[in-house]
Every structure is written in structure tokens, then in C-alpha cells.
Amino acid sequence: MAKVLVLNASYEPLNITSWRRAVVLLLKGKAEQLEHNGQILCAGFPLPTVIRLRHYVQIPYKEIPLTRRNVLERDRHTCQYCNHRGEDLTLDHIVPKSRSGGDSWENLVTACVRCNVHKGNRTPREANMPLLSQPRKPHSSLYFELVKQTKSDSEHQWRKYVIGI
């Protein structure tokens, strides 16, 4: 069923909830509707897609672990050199480990085996293999869930409230 993006009072994304929970928050006056999809629930009440809480909620910062799975998710299971999608993907160090390239969000990308072998112990510039996108650390732990939703659903309205998807 329809999912709703919940924003803090400061407009930062907090989570994704069901349309039912979002409607309850709206009816109780705890949130305001920012976007809707045009579908009507009842009595002219449009189905929300983005709501904003009226009062700020303090959320503790949570570090996003640098794992193989998270790098694959960030890069959307796509080789960052040739755009190949599939199951045979590896992780590639942009600056090779042998050249003091460490494990970091900015130095790891998803690569197919063919591109990883071709690049070898060189930088993308030396191998004449430009990256499709510059890797960076995700902004929040909600990032991966948002990427999945915007990829699978028609939640294009969320893009203006979320950085980096």
C-alpha cells in the first residue's frame, strides 16, 4: 500500500510510514500534509505522500556502517565504471590499497569483475575509466530505504525533501 515520507518540523526526513499512520497524525493535528497523490480517502481528504511534524523531534545521530552490502545499496547494485547491473559485482578501491587507499565511503565503489580486473592497480584516471558518479557517504540511515522507495514506487514528490537520492 502507499507509503508516506515523514519529515521533522525542520523538514529533515525522519522515516517512512503507512498512509494509515500518516492520516492518524494529520487528524490528531500532530502533522501537516505537504504533498498528496490525488487519490481521495473520504469526504475530500486526499491520500498524503509527504507530511511534516508540527513539533521538532530530537533524533540521536546514528553512524552508518561501511559494509559491502551498504556500498552495493548506495551504488544501486550497478558497476560504477560500465553501468552493468548484476550479481557478479565486487568492491573496488578508487585509490588502490597498495597506494595507501583506505576503506572509506569516498574510496569504495561497486564494480563488475571485468572492470575491476581491467582497472587493476591503477586509479580510474590512469586506467582511462571515469566513474559514473562520485562516491560519498550517505547522509542518514534512512537513505537506503528512501532509495528503494523512490526506485520502486512513484514517490517522485519525495525527491525535493531528500538530499542525494
Can you describe this structure?
With 165 residues, the protein is an alpha+beta fold. It is 20% helix and 25% strand. The protein contains four helices and six strands. The protein has helices spanning 19-27, 68-74, 113-119, 143-152; strands at 3-7, 13-18, 31-42, 45-53, 89-93, 108-112. Strands 2-1-4-3 form a four-stranded mixed beta sheet, with helices on both faces. A two-stranded antiparallel sheet has the order 5-6. Strand 3 and strand 4 form a beta hairpin. The longest helix is centred in the C-terminal third of the chain and has 10 residues, at 143-152. It is elongated. The protein starts with a strand and ends in a 13-residue tail after the last helix. The mean pLDDT is 87.
List the helices and strands and how they pair.
Blueprint: E1 3-7, E2 13-18, H1 19-27, E3 31-42, E4 45-53, H2 68-74, E5 89-93, E6 108-112, H3 113-119, H4 143-152
The gross shape turns out to be elongated
Residue stretches low in confidence (pLDDT < 50, at least 5 long) are none
Integer-rounded radius of gyration: 20 Å
Spell out the helices and strands N to C.
EEHEEHEEHH
Main sheet record: 4 strands, mixed
Task: State the end-to-end distance.
Answer: 22 Å
Total DSSP E strands: 6
Strand content: 25-35%
Number of helices: 4
With strands numbered from the N-terminus, the spatial order across the biggest sheet is 2-1-4-3
Q: Give the class from helix and strand content and strand pairing.
A: alpha+beta
Mean pLDDT: 87
Determine the fraction of residues in helical runs and give it as a percent range. 10-25%
